[in-house]
Amino acid sequence: EKPKKLLPRPPIVTVMGHVDHGKTTLLDYIRKTNVTAREFGGITQHIGASVVEHNGKKIVFLDTPGHEAFTSMRARGAQVTDIVVLIVAADDGVMPQTIEALNHAKAANTPIIVAINKIDKPSAKPDRVKQQLADLGLIPEEWGGDTIMVEISAKTGLNVDQLLEMILLVAEMNELVADYEATPQGVVIEAELDKGKGPVANVIVQQGTLRRGDILLFETTWGRVRAMMDHLGRNVDEVTPSLPAKILGLEDVPQAGERFIKVDDERAAREAVEQYMEKKRQQEMQAVKRTSLEELFEQMEKGEKPVVRMILKSDVQGTLEAIKSSLMRLAVEEVGIEVVHEGVGRITESDVMLADASNAIIIGFNVRPDGNAKKLAEQKGIQIRLYRTIYDVIDDVKAAVEGMLA
Ligand code: GTP
Ligand code: NA
Ligand code: MG
Q1: Which parts of the sequence belong to the Tr-type G domain (predicted)?
Q2: Pairing mode of beta strands 238-239, 215-217
Q3: Which member of 64, 190, 290, 319 has the greatest number of CB atoms within 10 A?
């Protein structure tokens, strides 16, 4: 085995805090761009990563929509964030989502720096914020504690330099390093299907140096890196640890939080993905069989014909119709299929509630659940199955129906 060559790597920072406390404005100021104005309704809708330089040192920022993304990544075992900047508006003070964010950061054992924002406002009460935070166990350094707190204005830029210095200081204290020559690996922060480019994944490299042409194994997909872009959209040939990259060339769209590693050959990658997907499918099938069987017995007792219920969501009306008519053809004498609801668009909380109430599974074709829907489905144990080909939907439902008859 090669000896490890550990070198410093840039810190990866997540800014968290209550709605409208200034996360995006802070990142805008730091990046000297203007993302807030471009965002629909001023609400952050995606996870973006950006890289800024301060005193010649890089800092990577993840602009998360609240702490949900942070936690869903952690739930998948991907610990991406090195430092949390907890932003609290000095006029508003500690709010419910401030506490939630704090708890998430604590649970992840991530160092926290507090940015007390909107200090330019006449109504700002920074000492009140410090007291509120102290009550939650974050004691400011100036009061003898060990939490770094910086009073800033994301709007005017006051003390933002100082905040960046503190980030670099904490990074140094935590000795963030990586092996630049290790087998490249990292994590997906967001991914999408681009009409022209195909699957596009925004990733962060955690170890090694990712190069164009590398064969990468994700959990649900794989691919050979056809092209890579850095955070400014420039084509690059390699990406070093902590840095984000947009990568093209994957077979399918991976989920946020999926990890990847470079492998030597395509066949091994394809087989590993097939095995993973097969295992997942088996688990899902078992779950369907279980809940459906219970229901089946109930229905038989009542002298009813058992029915597999489903909610169908798709990106376009046309495929919805096609899936529905193919599914109906699968209904057999012994087992019926009932579509309790169908619609175009993302899977929402209301779909999950309906599925819960009607004991249905949710089938998404080229659509995904939104954050709330996903959370609720997990809580309620509602199955959401996502597909990209009609063939797979039909195949899966057919197998489930056959499973019920077996
Ligand atoms: P979400 O993404 O919706 O959770 O909000 P956010 O935390 O990203 O807040 P955002 O940056 O969108 O700021 C909310 C509002 O506060 C905007 O109108 C900003 O202009 C304003 N704001 C942010 N920072 C400051 C500041 O330092 N001073 C003042 N006066 N206003 C600020
Ligand atoms: Na906002
Ligand atoms: Mg925002």
Answers
A1: 8-177
A2: unpaired
A3: 64
Average pLDDT over the chain, rounded to an integer: 85
- The strand ranges marked E within 213-255 are 215-217, 222-229, 238-239, 244-250
Closest-CA residue, ligand 1 atom 4, reads: 19
Q: Is the pLDDT of residue 382 over 70?
A: yes
Q: Please state the separation of Cα 282 from the chain's center in Å.
A: 24
pLDDT single digits (tens) 194-204: 888 899 999 99
Please state, as a whole number, how many other Cβ atoms lie within 10 Å of the Cβ of residue 118: 24
Q: Which of 36, 1, 64 is nearest to 371 (CA)?
A: 64
Nearest alpha carbon to residue 383 among 356, 346, 401, 405: 356
Asked if 144 and 13 count as a contact pair (C-beta separation under 8 A), the reply is no
* Mean pLDDT value of segment 9-38: 83
- For residue 379 the two structure tokens come to 């809580």
Longest distance between any two alpha carbons in the chain, whole Å: 76
Which residues make up each annotated binding site?
Answer: 17-24, 63-67, 117-120
The answer to whether 10 touches 242, Cβ cutoff 8 Å, is yes
Give every CB contact of residue 189 below 8 A, 6+ residues apart in sequence. 47, 49, 62, 73, 80, 202, 203, 204, 244, 256
